[in-house]
Amino acid sequence: MKTTLLAPLACGLMLLLGSSCGRQPVDLPEAGLIPKPVSVTRGDGSYKLKSGMTVAADSALESVANYLTDALRSSSALQLEAAPAGEDGNINLRLGLDDPNPEAYTLTVDSRGITIRGASPRGVAMGIATLRQLVPVDPTDSRIPYITVSDSPRFEWRGMHLDVSRHFYTVDQVKRYLDLMATYKFNKFHWHLTDDQGWRIEIRQYPLLTDSGAWRRLNSQDRECLAMAAREDNPDMLLPQELLRIENGDTLYGGFYTQDEIRDVVAYAAARGIDVIPELDMPGHLMGAQQGYPWITCTGESSWGKSFSSPLCPGKDSALMFAKNVYSEVFSLFPYEYVHLGADEVEKTNWKNCPDCQARIKTYGLKDEQELQSWFVHDMESHFRANGKKMIGWDEIVEGGLSPTATITWWRDWAPGAVTTATAQGNDVIICPDFLLYLDFIEQGRDLKRIYETEPTAYRAEWHLTPKQQARIRGVQGNVWCERIPSERRMQYQVMPRMLALSEMAWARPEAKDWADFERRFAAQAPYLDRRGINYRIPDLTGFNDLNVFADTTTVEIGCLLPNIDVRYTTDGTFPTLESPLYTGPITVTESTNFIFRPFRPDGTAGAMQRAEYRKEAYSPAQPLPDRKLENGVRMLYHDFRGRKCEEIERAKAVRSYTLDSVAIPPRITEWLGLIYTGYLEAPESGIYTFALMSDDGSRLFLDDELLIDNDGPHGPVTRTAQRALAAGWHRLRVEYFDMNNGGELSLRWSTPSEPELHTLTGLKH
After folding, report:
1. Are 444 and 427 in a shared domain?
2. Closest CA to 580 of 567, 564, 591
3. Containing domain of residue 607, as a range?
4. Catalytic residue at 759?
5. Is residue 281 classed as helix, strand or coil in its secondary structure?
6. Which of 179, 275, 279, 345 is catalytic?
7. pLDDT tens for residues 648-703?
């Protein structure tokens, strides 16, 4: 219902009174738990925690008890003490829960106090995570409701990854990351310690790995971060000054962990129920090691091949011994059964031209360089097993033959066959597809819901996994690659809140999932994150597209997921600040207007800016069809393309053509590519149509020869939306798309006046 209009603004824009855009917070702490427990029973009353209260713990739970007292002291300023030996405390940590799942726990709060009982120390740690969320945000009110929680996880592997090679993170920063993981019941920390950009772990037998490999001159990614910091006035994109040093007139950037620091992190994680899984990536991505030891390569020098850096030479016994010596030191630092080999993105052209590698291929009767990679993986795995370790590798280890005991980390969304191959053979798989769970990709509006609703065992429709194969999906993992994440605050911004949706994907049973319920619980988590100083990303505002079209008048009504969020906006092209107009309700637009919206947290922290163009336009007339019979589908030309802009695709040679039902990437095309789609779409009625173009990398959409969506340039999966007023009839369609990283993703959806939900655009002709 319309209300009284306020004074008109420029461009015919008028504000309408209305309610705030945020949701009301959940008032009961147990209703905000993430991930959602299996069973929660609320009692009448509450138990008040006070400083000076005592914690009693079984003898095997000393480190876990220390974790509890440290966590409550840092988050709520509660000072707890150890109970006298043999006595109960106000909080009791006990073993002895009869449950086959080692991470199962019960949490009971009643008039007698708080008891957490676990099937193992790790189960008790999971119970502490729940208790931490029940403690009120308000430090003056530490009442916890009487409650009984009975809980256990769905998946054994609930992982988070962190790349410290591109940008180094200090021990304290890693510990804060672990603490965030523990809060939401993640139990595997995949620590990516080495890559081309830096070697971050002390190996005493090879000191040059850190003396030389842990420090670098600023590279293109570092300069890109600095440029973004200046362009966006964003200090989170600056390089940490404490990690810069001057040496012989050069500015060097980096850092590394001593072995004592590694042990400290491992112990810190263990108290929180987290295994630390180290990754030292081999045989590729080794430029960090080659600065000090170039002899491990095929040529004796560090270089760049056709696509990736020069790998370790599997034809040289000395290089193989180097790898085994390095891993042997690593084994002694990490007590857990798994170590990650990496083995992704190997430049095999180097091996093709290497006499030592070709001799190895001949000696072992290998078919080609793919099988040489498999031979290397098997050789390393034998070394792992001899030292009591199990090997994990990225899904490329399937190529050339996979051993029966290796576990794969499936990341290549465009290579789904790796999962079916591995699970059919009996290998375990960890799901972390890049299009969904690479949390370094910029978050899009629907990412949170997409993660939450994903079923890991049926992520790809073509899998058709049997129950036995599904049982081989051990769990899920969020990956954080840090090319463009130079600071802890930026890392938190990228990870949160998607980490929350992932935690529930990993912990909760499918039948317990409810998106609306999760929205409410996330809203209840926001004050808790604010209290802890977590720089979470405010989820995208909703209610508008990048381009919005109207014929006469329209209303802008903004939605946001979180409570207590202020939305500010401008219409003159300047960036919104805390002094800009406050959105208080629906906005009526009568003339073309360009908005910039920006949300602000209660502490004044600004969220991502979102632009929304509202364009007043006439209906685009239907187009005449060519004087020939049209065929069903859209025509696609495949170009042998190696560029970075859509406008350049047509200059490349067209290799072959396809006819497709929709705008999509044909199967079996996994190379660098440039695709151009042409055809006609039929608007069933005159009205406003919405188009959503998603791509990884660049794409553009033209309607009736006019550019409608520009999603160009190299990037991860990004969706752009726009509207167009179309008259009923046929309209010319053209889509341009390129990918520069061995695969990609592309889709074009639309909504019609009669079907407002976005769906795949079909019914095309060419």
Report:
1. yes
2. 567
3. 11-22+538-616
4. no
5. strand
6. 345
7. 999 999 989 999 999 998 876 666 789 999 999 999 999 999 999 999 889 999 99
